[in-house]
Design brief:
It comes from Kineosphaera limosa NBRC 100340. There is one protein chain. The protein is mostly beta strands. It has one domain: Glucose Oxidase, domain 1 (3-Layer(bba) Sandwich). Helices cover 9% and strands 28% of the residues. It has 3 helices and 12 strands, in the order ββαββββββαβαβββ. A 7-stranded mixed β-barrel has the order 4-10-9-7-5-11-12. α3 links the parallel β9 and β10. α2 runs parallel beside α3. The longest helix is centred in the middle third of the chain and has 9 residues.
């Protein structure tokens, strides 16, 4: 069996979406003083490799603890869209070669994860809403990307368009962001995308695993 860890390690000061809470890990208890090691963790629910529950953008949408384990594991297809330019739109032409019926989990692999942690990472490619709708029409319920967002991350002061979020979360689906290593995967894999079940929360960091 081949296994891939698709998760960015969570570190103090790691890159987050502009405006999100910073990530901080700090000793709370120590072996020298207390006989045990315990780390205090402070971060937003959308830190690192994480998922967006519908309530992230939908009033009354499901929260992360209401998501079923069954919808977050199983077969996934990997849609490879390599060689993209900064802030390039990925349109419906990417559907060419995608089968008429897909598993409920679809990963879009751009390779942009290699820039994670750098300023350049914010200039990631983004998905046209019509591409997202096209994937939904073929059976997608969970969209995973190796970028900060499936939507464009706008420059400071610019208007933000969350059309891909609206399409997926508005249909009671799930978005997984900041995945790593999608370009290393074969076209079809088994995956597990497990969040912490924070009660009433809009998202959670995850440990994302793929295997064949």
């Amino acid at each position: 069996m081949s296994v891939w860890d698709l998760t960015h390690p969570i570190r103090t000061g790691m890159q987050v979406y502009p405006g999100d809470p910073p990530v901080r890990l700090a000793p709370s208890l120590t072996l020298a003083r207390d006989g045990v090691e315990v780390t205090a963790v402070s971060c937003g629910t959308h830190s690192g490799s994480h998922l967006d529950a519908p309530s992230h953008t939908v009033v009354g949408g499901r929260t992360v603890d209401a998501l079923s384990v069954a919808e977050l594991c199983g077969e996934a297809i990997v849609l490879a869209v390599p060689g993209l330019a900064p802030r390039q739109r990925v349109g419906v032409e990417a559907l060419a070669g995608v089968p008429p019926v897909v598993p409920s989990i679809v990963f879009v692999a751009t390779g942009w994860d290699k820039s994670f942690g750098e300023p350049h990472y914010l200039a990631h490619p983004w998905l046209d809403a019509q591409l997202v709708v096209g994937l939904q029409a073929r059976g997608m319920r969970v969209l995973g990307v190796d970028t900060l967002s499936p939507d464009e991350t706008s420059l400071p002061g610019a208007e933000v368009d969350f059309a891909a979020h609206a399409a997926v979360l508005g249909a009671d689906g799930v978005i997984v962001e900041n995945l790593s290593g999608l370009t290393d995967l074969p076209p079809r894999v088994q995956v597990s995308l497990m969040p912490l079940p924070f009660a009433g929360a809009d998202g959670s960091p995850i440990r994302a695993i793929a295997w064949t």
